[in-house]
């Protein structure tokens, strides 16, 4: 059996658990968050993360306030962060804040901010 790979970089994708969304809608919102945060990362970090296999972790919070607190902490730490607000064409009202994407960034830096969050 081969040893588990060590991931030095990852993305954290965080969804609001207090907004009623189908599983598919949550997936789409997290995909938006992943791309938006990725676009804010520097070229070197993007390449290192990509070469490692693009690790992502899906997490949840219970409020919009929680998302913004985490976003602020990430930005203060120099981590790419992107809030997603829905267009409102399917399940939820326009402008509803649904998700937050963080990174790619060093796993240890993200863990300081998201380590207490529950997995989705």
**Number of folding domains?**
1
The computed structural class is alpha+beta
What is the helix fraction of residues, given as a range? 40-55%
The second-level CATH architecture is: 3-Layer(aba) Sandwich
Percentage of residues in DSSP E strands: 25-35%
Function: The natural substrate for this enzyme may be peptidyl-tRNAs which drop off the ribosome during protein synthesis.
Family: Belongs to the PTH2 family.
Catalytic activity: an N-acyl-L-alpha-aminoacyl-tRNA + H2O = an N-acyl-L-amino acid + a tRNA + H(+)
EC number: 3.1.1.29
Which helices and strands occur, and which strands form pairs?
Blueprint: E1 9-16, H1 23-40, H2 43-52, E2 56-61, H3 64-76, E3 81-85, E4 97-106, H4 107-114, E5 118-119
Parallel strand pairs: 1-2
Antiparallel strand pairs: 1-4, 2-5, 3-4
Folded structure, characterized:
The protein has 120 residues and is α+β, with helices and mostly antiparallel strands. It has one domain: Bit1 (3-Layer(aba) Sandwich), CATH 3.40.1490.10. Helices cover 41% and strands 26% of the residues. The protein is built from four helices and five strands; from the N terminus they run βααβαββαβ. A five-stranded mixed β-sheet has the order 3-4-1-2-5. The longest helix has 18 residues. The radius of gyration is 14 Å and the shape is globular. The model has no long low-confidence stretch (mean pLDDT 96). It catalyses: an N-acyl-L-alpha-aminoacyl-tRNA + H2O = an N-acyl-L-amino acid + a tRNA + H(+). It comes from Methanolacinia petrolearia (strain DSM 11571 / OCM 486 / SEBR 4847). The natural substrate for this enzyme may be peptidyl-tRNAs which drop off the ribosome during protein synthesis. Keywords: Hydrolase. It is an enzyme of class 3 (hydrolase).
